[in-house]
Amino acid sequence: MEGDGVSAPLPGRCGFYVVKKRRYCKMIVGRGKAFCGEHANVEYDAERIRVPCPLDPKHTVYQDNLEKHLKKCNSREKLKPAYYIQDVNAGPQEDEGLLLDEVPLGERSKEELNFLIQKLNSAVSGIPLAVLSVHKASLLGNMDALGLLGPERCFIEFGAGKGKLSHWIHVALQGSRSVHFMLVERSCTRFKVDGKHKNADVTFDRLQVDIQHLCLRKVPFLQEQKVPVVGVGKHLCGAATDLALRCLLDSVEDDEESGEPPRKRVKQEGGAKRDPVAAGEVSGLAIALCCHHRCDWRHYVGKEFFRERGLGAPEFAAFQRMSSWATCGLRKVAGVEGRPSAGEWGAEEHDQGEDAVPSTLNELVSAEDRERVGRLCKLLIDYGRVHFLRGKGFASDLRYYTSKDVSLENVLLTAVPTSISS
After folding, report:
1. How many CB atoms lie within 10 A of CB 76?
2. Residue 18: beta bridge partners?
3. pLDDT of 382 strictly over 60
4. HEC profile for the chain?
5. Measured between alpha carbons, how far is 420 from 40 in angstroms, rounded to an integer?
6. In this structure, are residues 137 and 401 in contact, taking their beta carbons and an 8 Å threshold?
7. Cβ 119 vs Cβ 311: under 8 Å
8. Rounded to whole angstroms, how far apart are CA atoms 296 and 239?
9. Of the candidates 173, 143, 302, 298, which has an alpha carbon nearest to the alpha carbon of residue 233?
10. How far apart are the first and last CA of the chain?
11. Which of 239, 234, 236 lies closest to 87, judged by CA?
12. Which of 245, 407, 230 has the alpha carbon at shortest distance from 326?
């Protein structure tokens, strides 16, 4: 009987049964081998000894093959590419000390929580939330309505993972010429889909780097090709969204230090200015937002927006934690330790934060009020990003791109140059 991966290993795959996943390991094995490198220690060999890898003890290697393994181990220190600049998109470390004594929400009094909620209600008053019509209610539908889908441009997918968003953009652009995809992902990802779609007119490149350290001006393709750039991301968690915005629009690298001639800043309507990325222009972005409890004041691009409303790092830290109430407020606290399944929410693998459901809050704030407050916290944080983009010469909005029964994280941040939208 041919292996199905559950009752027997798939052909050419590892013979180790993963109890937790209730199936056999899917890693490809070497010729004549029964197990992959991760599970090779299962195979007993009296003449050879397996030892933990010095670079990463999570996997083992035959002792007599250690020297050869260290030269190719994925955990070895690699040379940093030219586009890697330490903390280039991190933002200044101002006000960091104000967060050291942050009091957890579960330890705050009812009066303190009410005062925070009053500040929140005042800060969000007058903020609109634009909703695109139903027949455009999808991430790609919004991009198409904004004119972001088209040939002769480079799509940069931040937090790409397997690259599925780029895959569907490619499917939507079948037949278009001169389309380039650049997938940014800090970890090494298995079962990537981008490798299946390479052809003469469409190219996929992967940059294995944290967004925090990525300088787009140093990416060879963007230095050589003068093509418009479109930034995209699907459920770009917390601070990763702010890092991506800084990466696209707010690079702090000095041209004189880089040895490059100074570039002219592009003036937009209303006197706003924005800086081109490398040789091309940022022609827009569409980022599906989530996990606001993972935001970070240092990286956050909306500090000016907060300060205009009399808010700072302490309020941001509180609202950031309270934002998790938006996706846990529907649950009753008593007796609930876990989180709903992905099928119940239609969500992905996103945690709900440390302060998602502190038991002491059950009597202080009702579940319905927690959900409402969490939504307002998300709106306030997101609108700070809109404010940042508008200051860079973009027409920016927040849009619902799907319904709540599909995903509770259903807001899309969009932006196009003001000159295009007018």
Report:
1. 12
2. 23
3. yes
4. CCCCCCCCCCCCECCCEECCCCEECCCECCCCCCCCCCCHHHCCCCCCCEEECCCCCCCEEEHHHHHHHHHHCCCCCCCCCCCECCCCCCCCCCCHHHHCCCCCHHHCCHHHHHHHHHHHHHHHCCCCCCCCCHHHCCHHHHHHHCCCCCCCEEEEEECCCCCHHHHHHHHHCCCCCCEEEEEECCCCCCCCCHHHCCCCCEEEEEECCCHHHECHHHCHHHHHCCCCEEEEEEEEECHHHHHHHHHHHCCCCCHHHHCCCCCCCEECHHHCEECCECCECEEEEEEEEECHHHCCCCCCCCHHHHHHCCCCHHHHHHHHHHHHHHHCCCCCCCCCCCCCCHHHHCCCCCCCCCCCCCCCHHHHCCHHHHHHHHHHHHHHHHHHHHHHHHHCCEEEEEEECCCCCCCCCCEEEEEEEHHHHC
5. 57
6. yes
7. yes
8. 6
9. 143
10. 64
11. 239
12. 407
Quote the tokens at residue 127.
């903020």
| Closest C-alpha to 319, from 368, 242, 383 | 383
Phi first, then psi: give them for residue 233, nearest 5 degrees: -170, 140
Contact 352, 232 (CB under 8 A): no
Tokens 């590419």 map to which residue?
81
* 410's tokens: 């259903």
248 touches 184 (CB < 8 A): no
φ, ψ for residue 404, nearest 5 deg:
-65, -25
Burial class (CB in 10 A: 0-12, 13-18, 19+), 183: buried
Query: Cα 182 to chain center, whole Å?
Result: 15
pTM: 0.75
C-alpha dihedral sign at 167, 172, 175, 179 = negative
Radius of gyration of the chain (CA): 24
Q: Degrees (nearest 5) of the Cα angle 419, 380, 377?
A: 150
Residue with tokens 């040379």: 79
Query: 346 pLDDT exceeds 60?
Result: no
* Tens-place pLDDT, residues 93-124: 765 545 545 777 778 888 889 999 999 999 99
Q: From CA 420, how far away is CA 230, in angstroms rounded? A: 14
The per-residue pLDDT for range 393-405, each reduced to its tens digit, is: 999 999 989 888 8
Burial of 111 (0-12, 13-18, 19+ CB in 10 A): exposed
Q: Which amino acid is located at 160 in the chain? A: A
